[in-house]
DNA sequence: TTGTATGCGTTATCAT
DNA sequence: ATGATAACGCATACAA
């Protein structure tokens, strides 16, 4: 590795002071056009590359935000990430992505690392297994935004979707289709998202005056859902409301193996509307969340906090929409 | 935002010098147990959080690498990313992910940003539209690894898969199944990957003494593939060899719309073996690349370069495997 | 308009 | 075993 060129090298080459070089490179006023030209030429000639670590250290602004996701390979999060990135790019921010694999210890580490790196802010989708890290951020008065989940009794910036409504719409749709034994394949209930979707499921049943069939909590992931459905092969359901599309796609596969037809024998509703929801056969009825928008709003909230345009927390609840396709 | 605690605050609290604090926090020898205890307690009491920007600036080591991908929402890259992240975590490195959206200008910017941030190294999947950035890295003697593609005549660190073999295996399989009019739905040929897979396609035809049917180049993405198949509805093929699984999944959907059965009327082979390849109906025959391994090897190569355990470039060609499923 | 000098927080060198 | 001090590259207050 060659050593990098510094502004002092550039200054020497251009025959000016480092201050002048700094002013030129940062587009400050009060520099004569000739000097500016001289400096820029010297910088180009020497191949100057700004040292952002020094600059960030000096100004204590990194123009970088951290994103902590529980599973960045889930298409839901990749889409949200794109939304964040798009906005961040627009404001000249870089994004550091950290994956927790739904492990709370990883989550704690990720937050610590980002704090050490002095990112300007953090967007996090917490596991909700515990919340020490969130409280730490709060105590530090560090700019952060919670994405995708809602913490009861914690007054912080949040952007999440109206999951009670989502659960309600999905279940109501199934009930309207005449289904009476709707299995809900849910994520663990310590997550607000799981609780909210379940609440919607119950609400729809109540409205129809029908006794809810059954809800099971499982670990997230395709395998886990597939195995559960195989295991429950004797259960007499006529529909499944899934926590997300990944679960739903696993159900399609498992039901095929069990020789039960979708939607004739079993109707399926997913959640998230990831792109693959429309690619699979039969295509999935699902609850759509606008993932790009969610990411963009998360960044906007964070940006307001970073630039101190706003001090009081704000909770944004995104509307959801039922997308009816072939699986119901 | 509160101001962060510094080692000098900790030193004052513990009644020692900043040097001693630094020594303790970096686990250096020659510190008495009592002093160590005193310092750690002071640090904890004050809520000290290391300033990595200062540390990185001083030591000119960031313990961070940059990853530049052309499309981080493609499951292929998310899986590779996991492999990289896994290894990086093991060595105490953080990863900055940057997306180019297959835009060469974004690629140039991403590389510049990472250089400014003084990451310790870069893993990049270049668009191959041009290669100024690669040559820049080369000239700087900056540690980097190219992932997924091969540059002819450029002696650099690379990890990519044996795509001539992949194209050959896929095509041979279709020919053995009696298909004679195999359409190849390819990516643009300025990409080495597209060229190599096509070469394998030709090789298999030659071996069977059969005239190749037709190859079309299209932009990457689901929509693009779907539209192309709809557009070619009059073309009389009996099989499609797709550049990747995303194309293949689009073909499944398009052929369904065209009322042509898979695999009876048209057999389909994809490439990459992303997880969704086995989730779709019919499940996809595809060429498997071990994506985790590819990511892990990329990191290992980079690590060797960063730590200067190796100076001469190394090209690793990963083996591929044909996975036969229902689509052929 | 331009130059000089200081300090950001840490690590490293060199005394003690 | 511990402390004083310099240095990293840059941005900035202030002087010229």
TrEMBL record, chains A, B:
The keyword Transcription applies. GO terms for molecular function: DNA-binding transcription factor activity; transcription cis-regulatory region binding. InterPro entries: HTH_LacI, Lambda_DNA-bd_dom_sf, Peripla_BP/Lac1_sug-bd_dom, Peripla_BP_I. The keyword ATP-binding does not apply. Transmembrane segments: none annotated. Residues 5-59 form the HTH lacI-type domain. Keywords: DNA-binding, Transcription, Transcription regulation. PANTHER family: LACI-RELATED TRANSCRIPTIONAL REPRESSOR (PTHR30146), TRANSCRIPTION REGULATOR, MEMBER OF GALR FAMILY (PTHR30146:SF154). This is Transcriptional regulator, LacI family.
